[in-house]
Each structure stands twice: as structure tokens, then as C-alpha cells.
Write a structure and sequence with these properties.
The complex is a heterodimer of chains A (336) and B (534). Helices cover 52% and strands 12% of the residues of chain A. By secondary structure, chain A is α/β, with parallel strands linked by helices. Chain A folds into two domains: 174 residues, Rossmann fold, CATH 3.40.50.720; 144 residues, N-(1-d-carboxylethyl)-l-norvaline Dehydrogenase, domain 2, CATH 1.10.1040.10. An eight-stranded mixed β-sheet of chain A has the order 3-2-1-4-5-6-7-8, sandwiched between helices. In chain A, strand 2, helix 2 and strand 3 form a beta-alpha-beta unit. Chain A is globular and about 60 Å long. Chain B has 534 residues and is an alpha/beta fold. Chain B folds into three domains: 91 residues, no CATH class; 221 residues, no CATH class; 122 residues, Arc Repressor Mutant, subunit A. Helix content of chain B is 55%, strand content 11%. Chain B contains 20 helices and 16 strands. Chain B has a seven-stranded mixed β-sheet with strand order 1-7-6-2-5-3-4. In chain B, strands 13-16-15 form a three-stranded antiparallel β-sheet. Chain B is globular. Classes of the chains: A alpha/beta (336), B alpha/beta (534). Chains A and B meet through helix 5 of A and strand 10 and helix 13 of B.
Chain lengths: 336, 534
């Protein structure tokens, strides 16, 4: 017997998570901001705009009523864009109780405050049993039931157990962990690298270049993670290298798409106008860059992407600058 | 503890422990109960070997001798009996002996003992108990959220969690509780607190139970925890130092021990399961701020030894010398120095603030039901891992409250400033070299000390999340502040931390300067002031 689970946010990833729950016959409430979106889902069992072609199981019902969501479901997955989390969480806060468990699957960071999503949930609600769901989870592959895995990290074992029970199945493997910070940093940071990887692909550069980028991207992820208190081991798992590989390899990733278009000479404004879905990496770059400067961390790839997005640099300039960064020991320490 | 509860709590503690082990034995490999009895025997016998002979030690030896004999060929049923007996033996000691002693001592023996002591050591300065007590009332200031905390008595059970600087903390808190109109606080006191007749007078307002730190059998620790849990469920208010031990370095403790806080969550679940009318348990953090700390010299010495990896257990410190305690209090009176007890806003067991009606609030001040945190489908359930995390949660809130309500006195500010000068004038020396050598100059000019103190004070003033400043510091008369600190240092310690001669200030005891200055650690002042020691 499954408990009721809510998915708050009906973008492509939110709809996908709901679909997995539906495939597991979990009674699921899917919250959408707009009433017509709810109607479409309830009437056609589809979310054509965000997850075209995927059929949503009968155990799923869409609603736009947050009170109903919180009162009927004690287990909630938050999947709204990072800039919307604070407001939605505050609104839910009127109805949430200490009994609720919550994971978020938002791979971003609040730009102005550099707060992680779990910190925002803590600041806006009374919920303590919070976790993060993160991994190499491209929505469309999962919607097609291709084998994949993910991480649910929480300091509370109960959070892992309940979401494992609801989500794990024969095509989606759910692993557990304790390092919430690491999972959040990994998930947010890889979007920046994915943007850069999109540029590499857009320029038609080869695998050596991509490997160089990804490896040094991991090194920067580690530096940032260490500064924020993450367990570096996490970056070797689903939410670190796993997510990085999938996002950087796949043309399906929105961040990757932004990079490719930048490489072809489009400006950020043009790309934004053309894409209706959010590429979290664009905002995350700004947030991480500001934080790195404040903390005095040398994150060269982040700085290069930042110059490209916000400081008017061209792609060749950004690459030239990156390749001009002096090298020393691959990892911190003496070269003797 | 009320006499009618003493028997009840013993029975309850023992039966919970025995039941718990019988339950575990059912799913554990064979030999579980035997191992438990053996383990307890082993630790107790090892302890008894180390203790010097006394009636208690002889009694214990014969008690455990009996257990050992009966262990051979014992059935599971017999082993259960032995566990029951040993638990009862422990709990009797925890509950028992103390009360009679303290109540008798505090009413009759103390005044005689005290005047004898004073007569013997200082015949000219007869100091009556009343004077001492009245003097203390003038010098002990209880401030902050006092009314709020007192008001919570109507809504549930209190756990008072203070910072820990000195062995005087618990008696002073007992006295403060009395001044606040709180009922006696239950307190697990180490054996050393029972040997000092001057102190036990003030323990009257602490319903102290006995904690023997030399006993390290697991079963004994279970008894202590279960005792605290059951007492809380019975509605006894508790006093508990989350720092575990007196702060050795002088800094505000941030690594908090979670033992007893964890039992509070357990007691809360127990209350909910029993459908008690007032199940709530509240955490009341408070800081103690001394201008002078009785044991400062020994504590910082121990801290530095610990850093140098040769930690020892303090068995003889200022606290065990009545003369020092007497000096300490008489200096306190003559200096008009204040001991400040500052209460922060109270919390629930999950780190949420509570309002005056005792209701828990979410971060936006919306009322929430704390029972939800320990419930599944509306029913309260035990879950050790979950509760462990809640305890971490509340511990970090307590740590935050300590930092915010830490009250800085002139001695802290001036010691910190002089150490800054030491560090600034000897940029090549680290803290330990400064302590050892004192750097290039044995003294600084008064002007230098004034300027540095002014700098630190104005930085503190500007900080949003800084500590609280004692009244005289808030007035900001630097000359007065520095003068007061130097006068205070000169009066009590064996060697003054710093001493004025002519127009210069000599840093005589740099360990003490570090100790008193450390109270300002943790506020990122090193970075703000450009010094590397803090």
C-alpha cells in the first residue's frame, strides 16, 4: 500500500516524477500553477507542452490547490524553478506540518542570497525532514522508461525510505545518502559545466576537449563543494559525476542547448526569447561566480562562462582566456 | 525530587531498561544477556580497582562479587534478574544518597562549616552566610527572556541549557532559578560538587542527582539517560550543560553534547503517547557571563595541554580550595562585579521558537503543532535516528543563541585587545609562541591599549550579529573600561593577566589573556580587525 505523494511543479521534470509515481501506482497529486494545465492533465492524461507524448497513469490527479496538496499528502516533491521556490514554499507553509517529509528536485541556487534550495525550504516552512533528489535524470529518457538512477540525500533516514518506496522501480533506481549539501551543489554546479559543454559541441570540438572540460569542471565542483561543507565523495556519485556526464553528453539538456546556441553566435537575449523553459545554469553561473569572488575561490570555468553570458565576451575570447590560465599541480598541494 | 516520586522513578527506570534489553535479546545472537552482565561487571570491577578504599567501595565489591558468583550457570531468567539488580543498584545511587545530604547540609551544617572555615583562615574577617548570600543577590543579575521562560511553566516542562564556565555555574543557576520563581531544577551533578560544603548551600534549589563520571559501564549510562527521561516525563524541570564540561579555552562552546537533549525528545514522545495534558518540553538556553572566572588558570592550562595532546582530568582546581572560593566572592563584592545570567528566547525540542502561550512557531511566526515532528499518520512514534537529527537541530540553535546572548565584560574586551596587540606587534609568532615568549616587548603603552580597545569596541558596536555588551561597555568610556579590567585582573588571580605600572601595561599572564579574550572568538573578529590569532 502506497502513501499519497504530491509533486509540486508540473514542468518537464515534475511531470516526469509524477509519471514515475503513476507507473508505480502511487496515489499522486500533481500541482500546476495554472488551472488549464490541470484540466489538460486530468482530461487527456498528458502534459503536451512539457512532456509531449508521455502518458500519465490513472493514479495521478492534477490540482492547483496547495492546501489540498499539503493536507492530502504528507510526502511532497518540490520541482518548481529555483526562482519560484521561495514563494511557493511560503504559500505551502500555511498548511504544512512537522509531519511532512519533503524532497526537492530543483537543480539551482538562489541568486541573490546564494542559498541552497533546502535552506530556502527551511526558511519558509516548518518542515524539518527535508532531502534532495538529484542524479543523471533526463526527463524524456525517463519518460520512455529507459533505465536510470538517482540519489535521495537527507539527514533523515525516513525521508530516503519513504521516497525510495514511492519512486524505486524496475527502470528507476533510487540510492540514498546523507550529504544534502553535496547533492545540491553537484546538481546546481553541473549546469554551468553543461553550458560550457554545449559550447564545445557547438564548435565541433572533439572528445579530448570535452574530457578536459568535464574533468576540470569536476575539480571546480569539488572546490566549491569543499567551501560549502559538502562531502567530496558525493561528487563521485549520482549527483556529481553521474549528473555531469548525462547533462554534458546529451543534446536533450537545456543548459547544453544554451551553450550550443552561444557557440553559434546567438546572444543570451536571443536564446532566452527562443526557449520557453528555464535553463538553470544561466542563473547559477551568476550566483556561483559572485560566491566564488566573495570566498576567493579560483573557479576558472565559471568565470569564463560568466564573461560569456554577462560581460559581453565572445566564445573565442572565453576559450582563449581559459587556455591561458597557468597550470600547476592538478590537485592542491606541492609539485615536488 | 519529591519523596513520593523517588520510589516510582526507580521502578520505572529499572523496568524500562530490563524490558528494553529483553526485547533486544530476542533478536540478538545467543549470549546477549550474558555479555551485558559480563560487560557491566568488568567495567565496575576495573573502576573498583582504581578507587581508594571506602565503605562504598567495599559494599560495591561485595555486591559485584555476589553477581559474579551467581552468573555461573545462570539461565536467561537468572540473567534477567541480575540485570534488574544491577540497574536497581545504579539507580538507587543516582536518586538516593544525594537528597538527604543536601537538604540537611544546606539547612544546618553549612553556616557552621562556613564560619569555622572563615575563622580558621581569616579570623579578622568574619563573613556571615547572610552577608555572602545577600552580597551574591546584588551581584547576580538574571536578565533577558526571564518572564517568557517563567511563563512556560504553565504550559509544559523546562530544560534549562546554560553555557558552562565554572563549577559555580550550577549553584548560581540554582539560586537564579529561585530568584526567578522557578521550582527546583533537576540536575545531574558530578560527585565533586558534593564535597564542597560552601557550594552545596546553593544547591538547595537544584534537585541534584548524582552522576559518577568514573563509572563507564554502558548499563550505568543507560540508567542515567532513562532517569532523565522518566523525570522529564514526570514533569521535573531540568538543568543540563550541553557543553558537557566547563569551557577549557574560555570560548563559547559550539560543539554541544546531545545526550540529555536526546532524552528530552524521547520524553516528549512518551508524554504524547501517554496523552498527557501538557506534553510539551521547552528548551531555555542561557549564557553565564563572569568578569572573573574562579578556575580560569586551571582551565586554560588544561586547554593548552589538550592542544599539546597531554590532556589530564582535573582533580584539583581552584574549586576544591575553599580559600579561593572565598577570595573569589569577596573580590566580586569589593569590585562590584556582576555575574550575568542571560536567557535567550526559548525553543521547542526541534529548534523552533515558542510564543508566550507555549506554542511552537514556524520561521514566519505561524503557529504549528510540534507533535507532528514525531508522528506518523497522526500517531506519535519513537525513531532514534530521526530524534538524533532533531537533537542536532536544536543543538545548533542553542549554539546560535549562545553566540547572540553572550555578554562581554571589560575583562574579555581588554584581554582580547591586549592579545591583538601581542599578535600585531609580533606578526611572525603564532599564538603558542606568543604565549611562551611574550614576543619582543613585555609591555605596551596605555595609549596603545586604549586605541586597540577602542577599535575592538567600535567594531563590536557596528556588528549586526555580534555578542551583547555589558552596560559599562555600552557607555563606551575607554579609559574607564581599561582601568576596570586591569583593576579586576590585579585582584584575584595568582598572577594578574595584565598589570599596569606607570604608563605601561605588562602582559604578565598571557594564558589568562587568551582565556578571557577567547570569549570573543567565533565572531569573525580576526578578519575584521586584521589579526590572525582570533
Amino acid at each position: 500500500m502506497h502513501e499519497n505523494v504530491a509533486v509540486v511543479g508540473s514542468g518537464s521534470w515534475g511531470t516526469t516524477i509524477a509519471k514515475i509515481l503513476g507507473d508505480n501506482n502511487v496515489p499522486t497529486l500533481l500541482w500546476a500553477r495554472r488551472e488549464d494545465a490541470c484540466r489538460e492533465i486530468n482530461e487527456t492524461r498528458q502534459n503536451e507542452k512539457y512532456l509531449p507524448g508521455a502518458r500519465l497513469g490513472e493514479s495521478i490527479r492534477a490540482t492547483h490547490d496547495l492546501q489540498e496538496v499539503c493536507e492530502r499528502c504528507k510526502a511532497i516533491v518540490m520541482v518548481v524553478p529555483s526562482h519560484g521556490v521561495r514563494q511557493v514554499a511560503f504559500d505551502m507553509g500555511h498548511y504544512l506540518t512537522g509531519e511532512h517529509v519533503m524532497v526537492h528536485a530543483v537543480k539551482g541556487i538562489e541568486v541573490d542570497t546564494f542559498k541552497r534550495i533546502s535552506e530556502i525550504l527551511r526558511e519558509e516552512t516548518c518542515v524539518k525532514k527535508i532531502g534532495v533528489l538529484s542524479g543523471p535524470n533526463l526527463a524524456r529518457e525517463l519518460a520512455a522508461q529507459q533505465p536510470a538512477g538517482t540519489l535521495v540525500a537527507s539527514r533523515f533516514n525516513e525521508v530516503f525510505k519513504r521516497f525510495h518506496k514511492a519512486l524505486h522501480n524496475n527502470y528507476f533506481r533510487v540510492y540514498g545518502g546523507r550529504d544534502v549539501v553535496g547533492a545540491e551543489v553537484g546538481g546546481a554546479f553541473k549546469n554551468i559545466v553543461a553550458l560550457a559543454a554545449g559550447i564545445v559541441d557547438g564548435l565541433g570540438l572533439g572528445d579530448n576537449t570535452k574530457a578536459l572540460l568535464l574533468t576540470r569542471g569536476m575539480a571546480e565542483m569539488g572546490k566549491l563543494g569543499a567551501a560549502m561543507g559538502a562531502d567530496l565523495l558525493t561528487f563521485g556519485g549520482m549527483a556529481g559525476i553521474g549528473d555531469l556526464m548525462a547533462t554534458c553528453a546529451s543534446p536533450l539538456s537545456r543548459n547544453h542547448q544554451v551553450g550550443e546556441r552561444l557557440a553559434k553566435g546567438e546572444t543570451l537575449e536571443q536564446i532566452r526569447a527562443a526557449m520557453f523553459m528555464v535553463a538553470e545554469g544561466v542563473k547559477t553561473t551568476r550566483a556561483v561566480h559572485a560566491y566564488a569572488q566573495y570566498k576567493g575561490l579560483d573557479l576558472h570555468i565559471v568565470a569564463a562562462v560568466h564573461r560569456l553570458l554577462y560581460e559581453g565576451a565572445t566564445v573565442p575570447e572565453a576559450i582563449r582566456d581559459l587556455m591561458a590560465v597557468p597550470t600547476g599541480a592538478e590537485f592542491d598541494g606541492n609539485l615536488r | 525530587m519529591r519523596p513520593e516520586d523517588r520510589d516510582r522513578i526507580q521502578v520505572e527506570v529499572v523496568s524500562r531498561i530490563v524490558e528494553n534489553h529483553m526485547k533486544r535479546a530476542r533478536s540478538a545472537p545467543e549470549g546477549y544477556l550474558e555479555t551485558l552482565v559480563n560487560d557491566t561487571l568488568y567495567h565496575e570491577q576495573q573502576r573498583l580497582k582504581r578507587e581508594s578504599s571506602s565503605k562504598r567501595v567495599r559494599d560495591d565489591k561485595s555486591f559485584y562479587g555476589g553477581i559474579k558468583r551467581r552468573m555461573r550457570h545462570a539461565s536467561d531468567h537468572d540473567l534477567r534478574g541480575l540485570i534488574d539488580e544491577m540497574s536497581r543498584h545504579f539507580v538507587r545511587e543516582v536518586v538516593g544518597n544525594f537528597d538527604d545530604r543536601v537538604y540537611k547540609l544546606s539547612t544546618s551544617v553549612i553556616p557552621t562549616g562556613l564560619s569555622l572555615l572563615l575563622n580558621a583562615q581569616s579570623p579578622a574577617r568574619l563573613f556571615s552566610l547572610e552577608n555572602l548570600r545577600d552580597g551574591l543577590a546584588d551581584h547576580l543579575i538574571v536578565q533577558g527572556e526571564v518572564d517568557h521562560v517563567r511563563g512556560l511553566l504553565d504550559h509544559g516542562t523546562l530544560v534549562v541549557v546554560p553555557t558552562h564556565s565554572s563549577n559555580l555555574d550550577s549553584p548560581l543557576l540554582g539560586y537564579a532559578a529561585h530568584l526567578m520563581g522557578l521550582p527546583p531544577l533537576l540536575y545531574g551533578a558530578g560527585l565533586n560538587l558534593f564535597t564542597n560544603p560552601m557550594i552545596s548551600f546553593f544547591m538547595r534549589n537544584l534537585g541534584a542527582y548524582r552522576v559518577d563520571r568514573k563509572k563507564n559501564a554502558g548499563l550505568y549510562k543507560e540508567v542515567l539517560k532513562e532517569y532523565a527521561t522518566v523525570a522529564m516525563e514526570m514533569g521535573y524541570h531540568n538543568l543540563f550543560f550541553p557543553g558537557g564540561t566547563r569551557s577549557r579555552s574560555g570560548a563559547i562552546e559550539q560543539h554541544l553534547k546531545k545526550g540529555l537533549l536526546g532524552t528530552a525528545v524521547r520524553a516528549y514522545v512518551g508524554n504524547l503517547k501517554a496523552k498527557k495534558a501538557k506534553p510539551n518540553i521547552y528548551v531555555a538556553p542561557c549564557t553565564l557571563s563572569y568578569k572573573l572566572v574562579l578556575e580560569a588558570e586551571t582551565l586554560i592550562d588544561d586547554h593548552l595541554k589538550e592542544v599539546g595532546k597531554s590532556r589530564y582530568i582535573i582533580s584539583d582546581d581552584e574549586f576544591s580550595r575553599p580559600r579561593r572560593i572565598y577570595n573569589f566572592f569577596s573580590n566580586l563584592v569589593s569590585l562590584d562585579a556582576k555575574i550575568l545570567i542571560t536567557f535567550s528566547p526559548p525553543l521547542d525540542l526541534f529548534g523552533n521558537p515558542v510564543n508566550r502561550q507555549g506554542e511552537s512557531l514556524d520561521p514566519h511566526g505561524r503557529v504549528i503543532d510540534p507533535a507532528g515532528y514525531v508522528s506518523r499518520d497522526g500517531e506519535p512514534v519513537y525513531d532514534d535516528q530521526r530524534d538524533h537529527e532533531y537533537t542536532n537541530e536544536v543543538a545548533s540553535e542553542i549554539g546560535r543563541a549562545y553566540m547572540e546572548h553572550n555578554v562581554i565584560q571589560s575583562t574579555n574586551l581588554v584581554a582580547f585587545s591586549i592579545f591583538n596587540l601581542l599578535s600585531r606587534k609580533n606578526p611572525d609568532l603564532d599564538v603558542y609562541r606568543i604565549l611562551r615568549t611574550g614576543g619582543d616587548e613585555p609591555s605596551f603603552t596605555m595609549a596603545d591599549v586604549h586605541v586597540e580597545t577602542e577599535r575592538v569596541l567600535s567594531t563590536l558596536d557596528e556588528m549586526e550579529a555580534g555578542p551583547r555588551l555589558e552596560r559599562d561597555l555600552r557607555r563606551g568610556d575607554i579609559q574607564e573600561i581599561v582601568g576596570d579590567a586591569l583593576k579586576t585582573f590585579a585582584l584575584y588571580h595568582t598572577r594578574p593577566a595584565a598589570r599596569r605600572r606607570g604608563d605601561r601595561v605588562f602582559h604578565d599572564d598571557r594564558n589568562l589573556l587568551l582565556y578571557y579574550g577567547n570569549r570573543l572568538r567565533g565572531y569573525d573578529l580576526g578578519r575584521k580587525l586584521g589579526v590572525n590569532w582570533a
